[in-house]
Amino acid sequence: MKSRFGGDSLVSRKSLTLIFLLLPDLYYSGWNLAPDASKSSMTQHLPFTRFWAVNQRRDLSLQLTRIGFVLTLIFVAIAFLAPVLQAIGLLQDPYEFLSNPPHHPPSLDHWFGTTRLGYDVFSRTIFGSQAALKVVVLSTLLSLLIGVPLGMISGYLGGKLDRVLLFVMDTIYTLPGLLLSVTLAFVVGRGIVNAAIALSISYIPQYYRIVRNQTASIKNELYVEAAQALGASTWKVLSRYLFLNVIQSVPVILSLNAADAIATLGGLGFLGLGLPEEVPEWGQDLRQALDGLSTGGIWWTTLFPGLAMTLMIMGLSMLGEGLNALISPRSRVRSAETIR
Predict the structure, then answer these.
(1) How many Å separate Cα 139 from the centre of its chain?
(2) N or C: the chain end with fewer CB closer than 10 Å?
(3) CA dist., res. 203 & res. 126, Å (int)
(4) Full-model pTM
(5) Residue 225 within a domain
(6) Is 80 part of a structural domain of the chain?
(7) What is the residue range of 255's domain?
(8) 18 falls in which pLDDT band (50, 70, 90)?
(9) Which helix (H) or strand (E) holds 6?
(10) pLDDT (mean) for 202-215
(11) pLDDT of 269-318, one tens digit each?
């Protein structure tokens, strides 16, 4: 049987199948493939070009994204450079307290003052960013590595497995995050890894729900059905044709969860359930500073750790909101039109 293309119908069907397989790559690449498209029009579709380019219109979301990116980058650099600064003598040992006067106000010797026990507040504030970064990276990676694969498998296969996983994730999602983290912290104990495990459990359902819904809506696309018709395995369909298309919102959730993880870690430290007492951590330092603040007006032991925590949370939150605007340009345009 001859087809309208001049060949066998089987050959034409294979050709159409290959076209369908290439369509998502062309669609999600974001390039303008018109014959008269110039180089400048092609670069307009790149999200990170929009991030750094100077826009003629005032876009508040992009401005906040730049601020959040800079703040996050500063805290990451501080966390990595803290041991180097201590080695060259610019930072005092955060565990040293015997040689320092207690409750000493900010001075040239102790820029942020000292605590009730004699710890240098400046040194513990700087090293507190290192502890926060370790816990945040571990907790978000654990929730990401568990939630994304479960969401893809559940959304693609469906059936009883999907219903069971959806019930479990919805049950976990209904629990308050801080209460769940406090309960798990009681069980697993103190420590960086234990705190990361306690924090990650409450974030897994968020990745699962987002990825599962995206997978369930995309698995019926023509290019996925074409790959299945060609005999592609479940692993190949998930990894090659679905993975990059269902994780577009993951960076937004990742940055917002990182901000929430810092606040939750501070809450655990304030309750005495986070890291060991000798480890510099902002929430724990705020807990130890309560006595001096209520009795003697010792303000510096609470101001600087609290300010550092607030700035890092603000930076990650603004970065997440800006990424959401970059990944979803239609919502960014609607919000800009609403402001005008």
Answers:
(1) 10
(2) N
(3) 27
(4) 0.73
(5) yes
(6) yes
(7) 60-339
(8) very low
(9) none
(10) 89
(11) 888 888 888 888 898 888 888 877 776 678 888 889 999 999 999 998 88
Q: Tally DSSP H helices, then E strands, for the chain.
A: 17, 0
What is the rounded radius of gyration, in angstroms, for the C-alpha atoms of the chain?
26
- Contact status, residue 121 vs residue 304, Cβ threshold 8 Å: yes
CATH number at residue 243: 1.10.3720.10
- Is the separation of the CB atoms in 215 and 152 below 8 Å? yes
Is 249 within the bounds of a domain? Answer: yes
pLDDT at 175: 84
Q: Provide the 3-class DSSP secondary structure of residue 187.
A: helix
Rounded-to-integer distance, Cα 340 and Cα 336, Å: 6
HSE value, Cβ hemisphere, 13 Å, CA-based, for 338? 8
C-alpha–C-alpha distance, residues 257 and 331, integer Å: 21
What DSSP string describes 46-94?
A: -HHHHHHS--SS--HHHHHHHHHHHHHHHHHHHHHHHHHHHHTTSS--T
> The tokens 């130890």 sit on which residue?
288
* SS3 track for 292-325: HHHHCCCCHHHHHHHHHHHHHHHHHHHHHHHHHH
Residue 234 or residue 310, greater confidence:
310
Tell how far CA 259 is from the center of its chain: 8
For residue 196, tell me if it sits in a domain. yes
Domain count, the chain: 1
